[in-house]
Amino acid sequence: MTLIFTAFFQASQGADNSTTEDLTGLSLAALLEVEITTVATGEEQTLSEAPGVVSIITAQDIKAMGAHGIDEVLKMIPGLHVSRSAMYNPIFAIRGIYQSDLNNPEVLILINGIPISTLFSGTRTPDWGGMPVKAIKRIEVIRGPGSALYGAEAFAGVINIITKGSEDIEGTEVGLQAGSFNTRGAWVLHGGNYKGLDMMFSLEYNESDGPDGLIAEDKQTAFDRIFHTNASLAPGQVNRQTQQVDIRTDVEYQNWQFRAGYQTRELGMGAGIASALDHDGRRGDESFNADLTYHNPTISESWDVTAQLNFLEVHPGARPQIRFFPPGAFGGAFPNGMISGIGSQEDHAHLDLYGFYTGFTDHTLRVGLGYHYGKLGSVTDIRNFCSLCEVPPNTLVDFSDTPFSLFPEGNRKNSYVSLQDVWKINAGWTLTTGMRYDTYSDVGSTFNPRLALVWQTSPTLTTKIMYGSAFRAPSFFELYVQNPPIITGNSELKSETIDTFELAFAYYPTKTWHLGLNLYTYQAKDKVFTVPTEGHGFMTKNFGRWDGQGFELEVSWKPRQTLEFLGSYALQRSVDKETDHDVGQSPQQQLYLQTDWNFHTFFYLNTQVTWIADRERAFGDPRPSIDDYTTVDLTLRTESENPLGITVGVRNLFDADVREPSIGLDSDGIVALPYDLPQAGRNYFAEIQYRF
Hints:
Blueprint: E1 5-6, E2 10-11, H1 17-24, E3 36-37, E4 44-45, E5 54-58, H2 59-65, H3 70-74, E6 80-84, E7 90-94, E8 107-111, E9 114-115, E10 136-143, H4 147-150, E11 157-163, E12 171-179, E13 183-194, E14 197-208, E15 214-215, H5 219-227, E16 236-237, E17 242-253, E18 256-267, E19 283-296, E20 303-318, E21 322-325, H6 329-332, E22 338-357, E23 363-383, E24 397-398, E25 410-424, E26 429-440, E27 444-458, E28 461-472, H7 476-480, E29 487-488, E30 496-507, E31 513-525, E32 528-532, E33 538-542, E34 545-560, E35 563-576, E36 581-582, E37 589-600, E38 603-613, E39 629-638, E40 644-651, E41 659-660, E42 677-678, E43 683-691
C-alpha cells in the first residue's frame, strides 16, 4: 500500500519490496525519524529537523498512482499545478508563480541534484517534454526559494529527480504498457553487484499519437478575418505526438560514483509555435549527461567532503518545416506558409566542491564553491521570413552566422561560494542560516541569504519560521533573441528576485493522524515580461512587482494497515502591483484527495480526485475566468511475491472538460487561442511487468 506522508516532507515506502514492508508497518509518528536525503540543506536529516517546506514522492507512490510521466506525479504536491503552454510543454506553477510565455523558468529542475537548465531558455529545453518514471527512485520538491543552496532558477521552487541505483532494483525488471491515443511503451531495469561494482542500467521507450483536442480558432483565424482569407487550419486537432527514449546507467565503487544518461525526444507542435495550428511540424531534443562524484564522509574526524564534475550536452531544435503560420498566411504573402527551422548545441560543465564540518559543538557547517561554464553554439537558422530584410516567400534562406540570425552564439561563466550553519541550540530548537554569492560573466552578481528556526513545540507539534531569497538570471533568449516575428530580446535585463517568509506547523495528534499547515508571503521584483512593441511582436523587459500570499493544508490518516487517506488544500492570491490585478492563469484554489486501499490480499485500488478552481485571466484579457474542473483517476494494481505484476487504470473517469489557459491579448490585440488549451478526456491504460 502506498504510504504518503506530507508535512515538511512526504515519506513513503522505498522502491523494493523489503523497504515497502518495513515502512508500511510504521506509524505516521515513527516516520518522523526516518532519515532521508533532502534538498533542504544538502545533508540527511530527520523529517522533524528539515528547515523547509519539502515534499517527497517515492517510487512506490508513483507505482500506486499508475503514473507514466513526471507531470502526472507532481499534481499531488500541494500548491503546485501542472499547466501547459501553447505547444503543450508542461508548466510547473508553484504558489501562483506562472509565466507560460517564457517556458516556466522560475522552477529549477535537477536530476540527481544536477541542473538540466539551458542558456537558451534558462530552464529545461522547450522540447524536454517531461520524463518517464520507471527509473525514478524518488522526487523531492521544495516549495519556496532555494537559491541560497542551488543558485539561479530556484525561484519559486526546486524539483529534484533522483534516479534508482543498483540497490533499488536488485535484479531485472521488464515491462510493457499500452493505452488510449495509440500509446505504447516498454522498459527494462537492471541492478546488481559485479566484482565490487554496484551497477544499474535502465532503458525506457514511449510513443503516442497524443490526446485529441479541438482548437476551434487560432491566431490565423483572426488574421483570416483581417485579410479576408481562409488559411487557418482551425477548427482542427492539436498535434501532440510524442516519441521518447531515456537511457541511464549508474556505477558505484567505494567512494566513487559515475552516472550517465541519454535522452531523445520528438514531439508534435501542440497548438503551434505561434498559436497557429501546424499538423505536420515536429520538434526534437537530444541530450547526453555524465557526472563523476567522489564522496568521503570520513576523510578526517570532522569533515565529510564531496567533489563532483558533470557535463551536459543538449541539442534542442526543430526540423526546417515548422510553420509559424500555414500556407496562405497574411493575405497570401506566404504561399507555403511562414516556415522556420531553428537548432543549436549547448555544452555545459559544472565543478562543485562542498563539505560538512562538525568540529564545533552543536554546529554543522556546510561550505561550498563551484564553477559553471556554458556555451551555446552551432546555431542553425533557416527561414522564409525576416523582419529586417527581404526574403522571397517561397525561398528558405539560411541566416546562420549572419547579422540576421535569430540569436547569436555565446557563452556564460558562473562561479559561486556558499556557507551554511545548522546550530542545534538545544533539544527543542535548531537554527539554520545560510548564504550564497553568485557572479556571472554577463548579468552581474547576486547574494541570497536564508534563515530557518525549527522549534519542537511539543512531542506532537513542530513549528518552523523561515525566510529565504532567490533569483532568476535572464536567459539568452530573453537577452539576445533578435529579428523574430514574435519576441525581441533585451541585453539590459536584470535578474528577477524574490523574498519569501514562511510559517509551518506539523501536528501529530495520534499515531495515525497527521496535520500540516504552511503559510507564506512573498514579494517578487524585476519580473521579466514580454511587453508589446510599437510594431508587431514583443520585447522582454523588467517590469513591476508581484506580491503573493497563501497557505497549504495537508492531512494524512491511516486508520488501518490496509487503508490510507491523503488530502491537501491550497489557497493563494498573487497580485501584479503595477495593475493591482491578479497575476492570473494559476488556480487560486486546489484540492487533492487520494486513497490507497488493499481490498484483497494481492489487489490495491488507488483513487485520486483533483479540483482546480478560481483561475482568473491576466490583466487586459477580456475573456471570462477559466472554468473550474474536477477529475477522478482510478488505478488497480497487483502486489505480491509473484514476479508478475499487472496495473490497469482510467484517467479523467467522468470525461471532464479540462482546459489550461492560453495567453491573452498580444501586440496585435488578438487572443490567439480564445478557447484555451483542451486536455485529455477519459482515457485508459494497462501495463504488465516481470521481475527476475
